[in-house]
Amino acid sequence: MAKRVLMCPPTYFDVRERKNPYMRLPIDRVRAQQQWDKLRRALEESGVKVEIIAPVKDLEDMVFAANQVFIGYSEKIGKFIVPSEMRHLIRQKEVPFYVEWFRNKGYKIIALDLRGEYLEGQGDLLWHPDHSKIWAGYGFRSTRGGVEKFAAAMKELGFQVTLLQLVDDHCYHLDTCLCPLNNEAALIYPGAYSADALAAVRQGWKRVHELGREEALQFMGNGIVANGRYITPRLTSNLSTILAREGLEPVVVDTSEFEKSGGSVFCMKSVIE
Ligand code: ARG
Measured between alpha carbons, how far is 149 from 232 in angstroms, rounded to an integer? Predict the structure, then answer.
């Protein structure tokens, strides 16, 4: 599904505050850079064009390029972004750099009045693969109020947003427990959702494939689908079977350094086409 993505090199990547239950030290920066390079190469070898945004000193999580803006295209207004309101102060500082990048490329900016609410971009907001609707997680990082304001703005553009309450703190972003594989199939970890949210997910996809909690906590649901491949930090026989059923070829890329900050491959890019 990804044709063109935006990535940010991990030059200043570090773990400084406990933003999620995974965070642990120490970070090996050399290793982090090697892992990031391998992810970039795996994307390029899958036919994905990789664009780069310059890293900024002291913004240690800027490498997680999925979170700072939500990206879309609408018949009415063309290419647009919705800037995030990040929960952590240090991450709020990343947002203007990403907004500028997109402004320079001609994207319209839909700035929501999010005062008192949080909204964390494509960590919690995922397009259905056919771009007909959007899945929106809340509970740990984005707030319900934040995703409601987002949903109202998207409604004006003709997009329906389904709100999904997350209940497992290890699945603090929707991209840790929902990975759209194609229009009909999704990979999920069911324990991450409230009962209503799980029912909505089951209704929204023809085939729902399940990961166990251990698999989810090892970020196997945080993969990238690109031209018939599924880039994942690791593989179990359960995941292999699911991918084979959906006609996807697994490509394993180690992201152990980034997992110490609670992120893996999906979090390290945003899809711009
Ligand atoms: N350390 C980062 C944070 O907690 C990790 C972000 C992971 N990104 C994601 N899309 N899940 O904010």
Answer: 32
3-state percent breakdown (helix, strand, coil) of the chain, nearest 5: 30, 25, 45
Residue with CA at minimum distance from ligand 1 atom 6: 263
Place of tokens 């899958």: 46
Ligand 1 closest atom vs CA 20 = 4
pTM here is 0.97
Using left for φ > 0, alpha for ψ between -120 and 50, and beta otherwise, residue 158 falls in: left
CA 201 / ligand 1 centre spacing (Å): 22
Q: Which residues line ligand 1 (CB under 6 A)?
A: 19-20, 61, 64, 66-67, 91, 123, 173, 175-176, 261-263, 267
**Which parts of the chain fold into alpha helices (H)?**
29-45, 89-92, 95-104, 144-156, 195-204, 213-217, 237-245, 256-259
Atom of ligand 1 nearest to the CA of 122: 10
Per-position pLDDT tens, the chain of length 273: 789 999 999 999 999 999 999 999 999 999 999 999 999 999 999 999 999 999 999 999 999 999 999 999 999 999 999 999 999 999 999 999 999 999 999 999 999 999 999 999 999 999 999 999 999 999 999 999 999 999 999 999 999 999 999 999 999 999 999 999 999 999 999 999 999 999 999 999 999 999 999 999 999 999 999 999 999 999 999 999 999 999 999 999 999 999 999 999 999 999 998
Hey, what domains does the chain have and what are their CATH numbers? 4-271 (3.75.10.10)
What tokens does 1 get?
A: 């599904």
Instruction: Tell me which residue has tokens 């500028």.
Output: 100
Length of the chain: 273
